[in-house]
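Quick one, T. Sequence first:
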Amino acid sequence: MHGVILFRDGNLSWLPITTKSACLKDIKKKRDELYEKGRNPDNLPSSLINNEVIYDSWNHLELAKDLKLEEDDLEICNKYTPLVYCGYVFSTKKWEQFNNSLNVRNKQRILYGGIQIAANNMPQGELIQIPLTRNIGRQNNAHFLIHFNNCEPDLGRKGFQNEIVNFSKNVASKLVELVFRYHKCLKPTTGATGDLLREESIADWKNEMIAHEKNNPIKLINKNFFLPTKAISITSVPTREQDVIALFNQLLAGGVIRGLRIMSTNERFTYDGLYRVIINEPTKNHIYEEHINPLGVLEEIVENFREKLPFNSFPKVLEYKYSLDGLIEDISSGIKNSNDIGLVVVWKTGNLWKGNYKITSLLDRNNLNLRQYHGVTHTMTNLTTNQREMDLIVLEELIDYLNNAEQSQIEQIKKYEEEDE
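Structure tokens:
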């Protein structure tokens, strides 16, 4: 049966939500078998990979053994002998699809990420958010049902006692980390079969703007303008997305960032805009030089484009955010798809990327060979697929780098390399 545990007719039962799922115990068992035979435990059969759901259950003895519970939680575990069910979906869109399939009231959410506590074979109280300190974006992917025996809810508060709630949160957060170790067995959210309508819509948008760009170019040929003023006109650090957009475009116009041209912005579309990567003459403006052009690329990269100059890439999708956290939340909720996005411009990175992605700093001179065009400051790689997902321009760190390159080197290595160790 492919699904997650739900209450139905007053009883615990499986309710199907997908045609492709695997039990965590089966995955672990097969990995152990492969290891004992001297084979790669990651080479699992097709029946155990590319799943939309990983599910499992734990009784109170398994919880005590697998999770190394603290003394207070162990006491609760022994006293109320909880039974825990977990369904972990590859994308939160599965909850949306399942809820829609029930044909209940519009926008009604029957099943979604969180913790449902139960007693006497009945759910009690509202869903509780799973508290995570890392992989925070994944808290919405897991649905837990924790059933306690010989336990009565606090009817006055329409819920359970604090010790029961705290136990449930602790167990769920530990189990999310345990299940996430096997995320490679889930269907990847990137590289997966795309939403054809979404892809078609983006393609139409790009083609429309290509035609608009050709038929309605904008030029300012008066040579008295865009001379260096050696200052930006924004007087304080950004506090919202609109500030990020304004600052970024000043850096483009001022020649601080030279590898991009903006084609379009669109406040009504899913994504914020379109851009092209450009390399043109004089190519020395694009080539890295430690003191006068620190955001440039290595000369051999420019030489690869010599026969194609001026180079203008096919349109790519651009996103603006004050913090990268905002985009991670959009991707986790299914609002946006990382497959579509080429570049994200943010003021700061936030923390939600940790655990799900690796950020490589191109401001770290050790990674200079990875910078493919002028001005890009970081790249983001999906830890599930090990694929490079999108480029970043982190304005806060870009400005720090230009103001004090040597101190920035120390900070970049500490933030993106040493924390990974």
